[in-house]
Design a protein that fits this description.
The chain is mainly β and 126 residues long. Helix content is 0%, strand content 49%.
Length: 126
């Protein structure tokens, strides 16, 4: 059974930083593309950041480029999202996701990700 458990969300002020964690079980984070997506109030779930299974390529949405960084710890089977210079537009539920396919760079489209966590709320006040 696949489980992706996010943690680290919370309420912060504009300009602050947060680090989200995604502890995976039932999937190996180093064998699949792993990503962070987000859903703001009243909006559809949107792409954020994706790390390819090889670790060689990272995809960033323009809105987070230069501020967010994805990483992983293979020994802990955990993926992280470091978020700096947060602003109110970053307010959303953040979801960790694992691609369906092993050892394939499926890109960053949400449709390629078959396993999702329950999400963690990030709220940025101005």
């Amino acid at each position: 059974q696949v489980q992706l458990v996010e943690s680290g969300g919370g309420l912060v002020q504009a300009g602050d930083s947060l680090r989200l964690s995604c502890a995976a079980s039932g999937v190996t984070v180093s064998k699949r593309n792993m990503g962070w997506f987000r859903q703001a109030p009243g909006k559809a779930r949107d792409f954020g950041v994706v790390l390819t299974w090889s670790g060689g390529t990272t995809y960033y949405a323009d809105s987070v480029k230069g501020r967010f960084t994805i990483s992983r710890d293979n020994a802990k089977n955990t993926v992280y999202l470091q978020m700096n210079s947060l602003n109110p537009d970053d307010t959303a539920v953040y979801y960790c996701a694992a691609a369906r396919d092993l050892y394939v760079n499926v890109g960053s489209a949400p449709s390629a990700f078959g396993y999702w966590g329950q999400g963690t709320q990030v709220t940025v006040s101005s």
